[in-house]
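Let us practice reading a record.
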Amino acid sequence: MKKFLSIVVASAMVAATLAGCGGASASDSTAETTENSASTEAAEGGASAEGATFKIGGIGPVTGGAAVYGQAVKNAAQLAVDEINAAGGINGAQIEFNFQDDEHDAEKAVNAYNTLKDWNMQMLLGTVTSTPCVAVVEKSHEDNMFQLTPSGSAVESIQYDNAFRVCFSDPNQGKASAQYIGENKVAEKIAVIYNSSDVYSSGIYQTFAAEAANQGLDIVSAEAFTEDSKTDFSVQLQKAKDAGAELVFLPIYYTEASIILGQADKMGYAPMFFGCDGLDGILAVEDFDTSLAEGVMLLTPFAADAQDELTQNFVKAYQEAYGDIPNQFAADAYDGIYAIKAAAEKAGITPDMSASDICDAMKAAMTEITVDGLTGAGMTWGADGEPNKAPKAVKITNGAYAAM
């Protein structure tokens, strides 16, 4: 999602990521997005002077094949929490943040949610990936627990009124991708390789295919794989090659994408590759030859090399804290915590309120705030939980994400 901005902004790709660090510090920028800007001292779960704290839970994969996503969310959320606490907290109260690993597994995500409930969680930032998020939102809805997912993009991830998201939804990503390819005349003959057993992947593919017809694109090959067959893509690639596909669309996660790029190279097939936010993280895959990703395009709301002050301050703080360059999922989470802060201050909630009462207040407040964040300026939310903001995109150039 990037220079692409001006072209795809009219597409419905309104759904995604939020707050940011600007001016002299990250928390300064978010002050503009709320009527009251409060915070306190940095503490990973410390109490305020009165002993009252807001308990915010987090869920995502910090182990397993999607760990790059979950670790980024955990790190960036903690960074935002520490900044907010250092600046006075939310409505004068500190934040406790407790992040649980779900290994990108729905059942484990529900277990993590129950663990956080036992901890007396009052609000949830999560989950990170779509399938676990769909499972958890059923539970949070039953409990009337406020939930903001930074990156769960499946439509069903926020199907209830207690849930909101920072990232773009799958339908918007698929539609915007087809529009970008068509309007920029990137290619005419398109192959698609997608995971039919994953709601994220199949959801994007469906809307991409529908919009491709409107754009005059020819999908010459559309081949699926499942969780049980995601190591050998020779058949899918051969069909794409035989059909003369100039571009292969990959609405999948980075691990499988890295395998596909490697296998395409070995068979001498060198089409253009285009993906969505699930490809963010491909440059960090262990033992992957990153030169194979040169020229890969992907929709994503954040590029660490952007020159705006918000991004530069965030990247610097993240690198100092964790020794790594933040990805889009980190930006989503960072914006997510600041969005929670803005809504909490708008709603005037206090730590002694029940999770259900907090949820009722937050649901209304989320539709009344505006957040200038890393992943979008002037972000707002509707009662359906979807964010409104302009899309962005990046291209991998010289081993790094570059804004388009």
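A brief commentary: The chain has two domains: 17-167+307-388, 170-300+395-403.
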